[in-house]
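ARCHIVE CARD
Drawer: 12
Card no.: 0347
Subject: one protein chain, sequence and derived structure
Cross-reference: see card 0346
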Amino acid sequence: MRPGFRIVAAFVMSAAGLAGCARASTIDFSSRPWTGGGAASAAGYRSNWDNDLFTYPVAPAGYCDASLAAWDSASNQSVCAGGSGSNIAFHETVRFGVTPTRAGSWGIRIGPDFGLGGAVFLDGVALGFRTTDMWWNGSYASSAQIFDFTTNLSAGNHVLQVYGFEACCDGASQAQFRLPGSTAWTTFAAADGINPVPEPAAPYFLLPGLAAVCLYARRRKRQ
């Protein structure tokens, strides 16, 4: 095999490998200072967070942006170094994938501590919101203190976003999912088995480089 074509073959194999890679589910945690109230709608909670983020693009002392290994026992004080226990705006994001065999009716539930209420969005669409004081206290028994949804998910990648506001006193939160046909709940975590699905178009960003390698191979052939 000519040297140029060895390069092309290696490049194509690398691209195929990238297309087949599946990353672990990601859980992002963000907090900022908040001294306002709640909101009258799900969109209002999201807007309040966006406005707060504009005020504090970088998290000040007592607040932070972090990646979680699992959404379990998560609070501002436990996640952020020197984390504040009051006046907190929260935004958590989970990115996960659904394989064709797992498409269908999923359960999603969140146990928060949002004294000023909060909202939940899936793929940018509001699943619901509450304006009341929410504190699950480690139990999903009270429907008034938690978010609990059943939603149909198609195969592909999905984004779950949760917004909430707390005046005092920053308790631990958790989020879980239930697969179609199952009665068991699983905590969202990096090793929860619902990795983002590789996108078919993932290697296409490599095409300009591949074209350059092919051009190099043709020139080598003419020499």
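Annotation on reverse: The CA atoms of residues 97 and 196 lie 4 Å apart. The chain has two domains: 1-21+206-223, 23-197.
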